TrEMBL record:
Residues 3-71, 78-146, 149-217 form the BON domain. It holds the Pfam family BON. Keywords: Signal. Transmembrane segments: none annotated. This is Osmotically-inducible protein OsmY. The keyword Ribosomal protein does not apply. InterPro entries: BON_dom, Lipoprotein_DolP, Transpt-assoc_nodulatn_dom_bac.
Length: 217
């Protein structure tokens, strides 16, 4: 098991390795497997990339984000300009149903609302807006449209987990109740936990995923 110092060093190295992150502006602390990133960065896209980089590191159990987006003058845009760009980006993304997602912008913070059929469509909407100039934060409040009852959702998710590489499905328990999936058990890494949750979201009829999986390297 890594010491806090080793984990801190590994996260710092991963941030330096990621070309989308200006690691010199980011402070890293590690305590009992939980990593805290702090500092000021130039864009929301970089904040998201930094979080992803930290999650990739073996031994990370959680990531706390104390990063603040401070836009340089060249990146600043009015809320109206951001909203217009966001609407266009959503319209040009083939994974986002036309007209399904609405945009609200307040001081650079974007809120997405609406209703789609699948979680990947909701994620695609966020991915469309995240890298836009002027965006300081993003709240993805898009909901999933209710589906008709699907038989054996639990079995479908368990079968999907068995197909995952480097994942022992016996370590994860799946419970389903009226479209809500609850996951419990252990994963070997933060990244593996995210992969398991994504597999659960792919099951038809899933409205919510409650992730109680513990990262145990």
């Amino acid at each position: 098991m890594k010491t806090d110092r080793q984990l801190q060093q590994d996260v710092m190295e991963e941030l330096r390795w990621d070309a989308a992150v200006q690691s010199a502006h980011i402070g890293v602390e590690a305590r009992d497997g939980v990593v805290t990133l702090s500092g000021e960065i130039d864009s929301y896209a970089e904040k998201f990339a930094a979080a992803d980089a930290a999650k990739r590191v073996a031994g990370v159990k959680g990531v706390a984000m104390d990063l603040e987006v401070k836009l340089p003058g060249s990146n600043k845009r009015t809320d109206a300009d951001i909203a217009k760009a966001a609407v266009t980006a959503l319209e040009w993304n083939v994974s986002v149903p036309i007209g399904a997602v609405q945009v609200k912008v307040d001081d650079g913070f974007v809120t997405l609302t609406g209703e789609v059929d699948w979680d990947y469509q909701r994620d695609a909407a966020a991915a469309s807006v995240r890298p836009l100039l002027g965006v300081r934060g993003l709240n993805n409040a898009v909901s999933l449209r209710p589906h008709a009852a699907i038989k054996d959702v639990k079995g479908k998710i368990e079968a999907a987990l068995q197909r995952l590489a480097h994942q022992d499905s016996k370590e994860v328990t799946v419970a389903v109740n009226d479209g809500t999936v609850t996951l419990s058990g252990t994963a070997h890494s933060f990244l593996e936990r995210d992969t398991i949750e994504a597999a659960a979201w792919n099951a038809p009829g899933v409205q919510q995923v409650v992730d109680h999986i513990i990262v145990a390297p």
